[in-house]
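Ticket #4471: structure output looks truncated?

Reporter: J.K.
Steps to reproduce: submitted the chain below (137 residues) through the standard prediction queue, then opened the result file.
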Amino acid sequence: MRSVESAHVIPGRGIEGDRYFTGGGTFSPNPQRPDFEITFIAQEAIDAFVAESGAAFTGKDARRNVVTRGIDLNALVGCEFLVGELRFRGIRLCEPCNYLAKITGPVVLRGLVHRGGLRTQILTEGGIRVGDAIRVV
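Returned output as attached by the reporter:
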């Protein structure tokens, strides 16, 4: 896991260079599914989890692709939205799993329920960048 300033996203594939793009992710489905293309998590959810649990946990630990601020990701399930000028569709919540608990600590299983992020389908190809606005369509 590493932070980048920008990334190229491709519908039906995911983030160019990501482990799920090549099918090498821990839970990579075969064939590829839309809810495995890109994941988002809100910094506010991470901050609340850290405050409640006392756990040392960051956006990198969450293992999601994009960390957001100022948007209710749960409200985007079933909705289309823009990141910059690119279009995405919220598919389902990205709940914490046993693998995440194994590598970070079991407290994440309860602590991030319903705030572990959003599994999202990429609808348009292009670049997203740190600081891009997120807008509901």
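Triage note (M.O.): checked the attachment and the full token line is present. The helical segments are 43-53, 59-62, 98-104, 107-111.
Status: closed, working as intended.
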